[in-house]
Amino acid sequence: MLNSRYKNLLNQSALYGLSIFLMKGISLIMLPVYTHYLIPEDYGRLEVLVVFSNVASIILGFGLVETLYRFVGFADDAEKKQRHAAECLFVAGIIAIISYTFFHLYSKNLVQLLPGILTENELYLLGIALSVGGLINIPLAWLRITERAGLFFTVSMLKVILQVSLTFYWLVNGWGVTSILAAGAVSSVIIALILCVIQLKETRLSFSIKHMKSIIYYAGPIFVGGVATFSLSGMDRWLLAEHFGAVEIAAYAIAIKFALVPTLLIQPFTLWWFPKRFSVLKEQDGKAVNAHFAVLGAIISVLICGILGLIGPILIHYLTPVEYHAAISILPWLLLCTLLKMLSDLLNLGCFIEKNSQVQMKINLAACGLGGLLLFMLVPTFMIAGALTALIIANGIRTLLFYYYSQKKVYLPYKFGYLFSAISAAFVATYFGQIS
What we know:
Helices cover 82% and strands 0% of the residues. The protein is mostly helical.
């Protein structure tokens, strides 16, 4: 059984991996271009917008992708699967209309609340891309569920080509930060239209008050918990920009770009496995299979972080101007934060099997609340060192809580022997990366 699953994994992972790395890793791929055309002050301003984008995408996403995975995973037949996908797309469409209206009317007011010197036009362009995010993510999730990696790759590559081409063209013509935001807006709208047409042909739209209540009941706590994670995925840069200015966070922002690479590289695995793990759990040996692939994902995550710890400093040195090289010493600590997040995602199955997701919401609120408090206390005095300390403590606690409560809900027979060996190897690799 495991052999057939490995074959399935290898067949689809290559396409998923390349798709996601290119689609979400554009900022890293374009890093030499960005740092050539943008001064540190502009790059710091862009990072403030990225932080806002992270928070807004969680809010506007409303936990719909996770909800789709859960409801489709436990559905008994194809008709029910299509209905759940249609209902989630309907909700995403309503969110898109409301959010675009908000950005169209209130960008001028909202931009005054953000740190850094931002413009209304920059926020409006970002708002367009954010508004259609759900209309991209739900159809892409549906393609993953129905195992169409080839179509997933084709659509993803189209978005990458559009965004990179437009960004480069407008950067060369002196648009600065606006070029990146405008390219993101145009490419997102085009891809959202294409994906919605593809899904609507298969599932159409569906609306049922009873089913909507079930979706909201499950997605609501995920949404609340997701918003809480802002303290671990953006508040650090927000506070640094507020207290020390956008220029000061430029090197920190570069380190974050490299620290996020492992989350892109592990996605071939998670895109294949996460939609399946609920349905696999219902099988006779479902717990053992879930434990096996969760540990496999954890080992891959650790090794990827170790490789980035080794080669990341070299890449930063050669790909960025000297004023960004302070990112080298920051990178290992941010990689540790990334690894903790990845482990918590892989070892949390039990927290998502109920008809509601209260457990994960409470864990995120507790861990992220602590993280936010530590950031407020430590950043003004200790700057980047304070931010890193707060993030590591909060992410460590979050990972332990997810593991404990997940095992309490559904005990999985994890075998961690090889994982500990991988951690040791990653530590050594990262050490040599810093002294080389």
